[in-house]
Task: structure prediction
Amino acid sequence: MSYVASVNVMLKEGIADPQGLTIQRALPALGFEGVAEVRVGKRIVLKVDASTADEAREQVEQMCQRLLSNPVIESFEVVVQ
Amino acid sequence: MTARIGIVVFPGSNCEQDVFRATRDLGAEPQMVWHGDRELPDVDIVVLPGGFAHGDYLRTGALARFSPIMDAVREHSQQGRLTIGICNGFQVLCEAGLLPGALRKNAGLKFLCKWVELQVENAETPFTSRAERGQILRIPINHFEGNWYCEPAELERLRANRQIVLRYVDNPNGSLEAVAGIANDDFTVFGLMPHPERACEALLGSEDGITIFNSMIDHVTSKAAV
Amino acid sequence: MQAALHRDLGLTDDEFDQICARLGRDPSYTELAMFSVMWSEHCSYKSSRVHLKSLPTDAPYVLVGPGEGAGIIEVAPGVAVAWKIESHNHPSFVEPFNGAATGVGGIVRDILSMGARPIALMDPLRFGTLDDARTRYLVDGVVHGISSYGNSIGVPTVGGEAVFEECYEENPLVNVACLGVIQDRLMHGRAEGSGNLAVLIGSSTGRDGIGGASVLASAEFDEASSEKRPSVQVGDPFSEKLLIEACLELIGRDLLVGIQDLGAGGISCPTSEMTSKAGTGMKVDIDAVHRREPGMEPFEVMISESQERMLAIVDPQSLDAVLEVCRRWELEARVIGEITTTGRVEVTSEGIAVADVPADALAEEGPVYERRARRPQWLDDLRAADRGDAAPPDLLDAFRAVISSPNICSKRWIWEQYDHMIFLGTLIGPGGDAAVIRLPDTEVAVAITTDGPGRYCYLNPYEGARLAVAEAALNVACVGAKPLAITNCLNFGNPEKPGVMWQFTEVVRGIGDACRVLGTPVTGGNVSFYNETKGRAIYPTPVIGMLGSVRDLGSVRGLGFVGAGDEVILLGVTDPDDLGGSEYAKVVNSTVGGAPPRLDLDALRDLIAFLGETNHLLRSAHDVGAGGLCVTLAESALAGGIGVGASVPGEPHRALFSESPGRVVVSCAPEDIDELLQRARTSGISATSLGSTGGDRVECGEMSVALEQLRGWYEDALPDTLSSSIEERNGRRS
Result:
């Protein structure tokens, strides 16, 4: 069966995010007040063959650990449909 | 005897020719090594040069670390031979776990190509033996992701073991502790963001890069003499 | 069938009739699309061809002139370089990052197609004024795009320009020049040899760049389908790097009969141009083209401008070797065609003919227009207008305003984003009068520079064009090189307007005349028309890319003062009235009017020769350009980190800010000044002793400023401007 897995990779809490900060600073100039924090990450979408959703999730989590995310500075979460 | 140098070329590497020329002009014997090969030729020193291996896709160095040659590079280091990663090469070594920490985007979020001054923190490594502690080396940087980071506990260990080898005098990219170059636990692997091969000619602005290459060459040739 | 279809594709009724007459029938969809790109202004030069013919193009050292991928110049015995400039103006306004990035990609492939390794880039850029938020966004995006692409492919960007004028606000100019060195053999874009194969190498083909042709889509065109038709081309520098290495290997191993890059016009271009040049034809199989998207129509495949692709002509015996090289470099390579003797481009899809057109009709027989040219009436008023040379209330304030103005101030913010050092050959990099590049593994060096004084051309297109060529030549001479040849990028408004066409013809005339006097033929270039929005055209802006050869590495000179106690001399004559179109007039008196500075081209040519003869006596050389003498002295002092005390006679603001061309500020050791002045007298070169270097102040006549304060004005201006908000800036000004 084919499953679609969505991976969100974000910088770990506590790691400085200059991109997020720059965006946060730019928003008020465009008229958007009240934005307290901005963090920027990346989203990776994969079509995976597996027998169950859980199997797909497990495979993708392993992919995250080995390649898609750098454990020194990033954390990830996986959602499988 | 001369030092034999293997320069690993990934698809997207682009500083390999410069490293080749710089080391050849110092009397070493450089050769290119294709990333797809499983074996290294018989070389004393391995260089991972600068560039954009695999387009820097996903994360810089993330894909290159899985290239077939990297197992041989790991082996080479375990045998006690020297490996130096320059810029993109440093990024690949961190991703491969051969060096601690990770390289992030520059704090100023801009690519930076400029001359910087580096202070030698540890002159007792095979990569800096020709320098003196506190000596200033003038070597250029050229990167978007040179902002080195590692976890606090790791940093303590590195400090205690004197693995922080080079620091920026004027931190250009937000690197933790102004780290410009670090070594692994047994000082066989060295990674630095600045490009020593670009500082080997007075005509180009500085000859301080020679200090690093010659230190490595010394290490190889003196070992052989013994 | 297609009553107004051809009009939607940008063809006139007349052009449509010509196509029908040439084919002897109505064209098919695919054929119409092919003609629409090949007969477009960008591809066919229909408005400019007839005038460009008047330019000088010959010299013994020009191995290949205009008409091919790039001009080829022999700079030393057995050493030849490729040199060309291109524009990517309109895409950069739509999407600055990708527009600029793909501009770099395109010119690099032009150089590559000649068998040259690209070794240096220059980016002459023009934008609106920096108080406009969109302009700041464009500057950021364009610089980021060039940086990202150029750095990734590993080619240094060694110089360029950044000019800010209101007229470019909605029509920024992104021109990119590339220098390459011929490695093993010179290649030509000719599809020779019936039975040879056409191999498409590189990235897959998608719908990039197909904007206007969407009208040919099926009747069910809707919102969802529109998402599949991106008109912006997105570049992939990683593929380009692989393409460079693979093509150079193929050429080095003599595996190719010919090669051409794909740019504007997509596959239609090389399939027709290469066959037209060789007098052959080609059968093209659409289905063999590797694609990125399903369901592409034949016309889309033929005109798509997907990036990072080359078309190689291969002898069948070499095919396996060619495919192996491409495979090793992880590039797709597909046989999409075969050379025939028919002289026709025959395109099939699923076995059915979708196009059958004579190659010449597409590549050579495009319309040639001699558009009406008429001197615009406003020019007389402009000439008679105040030239803006009234004295300033305060000389130091005026100097500060000029030295920190966007057109003059340090552009370090830009060029520190470019790798300008890779290849270990940049002897003089960004910030110099010209860049000096040592060719790999040789002791041969060349100098390259770009100049395009739009404001001068606005006041007088003919004189402005001569000034452009003159400035470029003098820049190259200042770094110790001999000017050899130029490539030019001619940026203009709408050529269907007689005023613009007049500007164009005058500029071409000026370039031709100046090139003949200076002995620097035109080796190729680019014309970009239609740079106008809502009736406002840009200034006529010819960007001249000058190439020079350096005699030996010891003759390379920078513009910075080298030591304290050196003598500073002004070579050339200052005309106190040369303030028309000057930075002073614009920045201090908010005026653009009058006549541009007067040029004595013969005297300038003599000065260039003099610089060559006295090279060994000079410790620094810097030509006087925008901003005038005070800027020249300031820049030399800042670069050298040494102050200067110069006395300049005449009315202070005229002495400091006049932009008389043909002037160079040189410095020499005290023991050499007598010889220098003596030689100047003998050669008929005007030489005025200004003073000497030393101290920590810059003094130019009555103007005096501390070097470090000056450094702040010069270096901080651009970063400060780009990081401040509009409100802040407007508040500060009022």
About this structure: The radius of gyration of chain A is 16 Å.
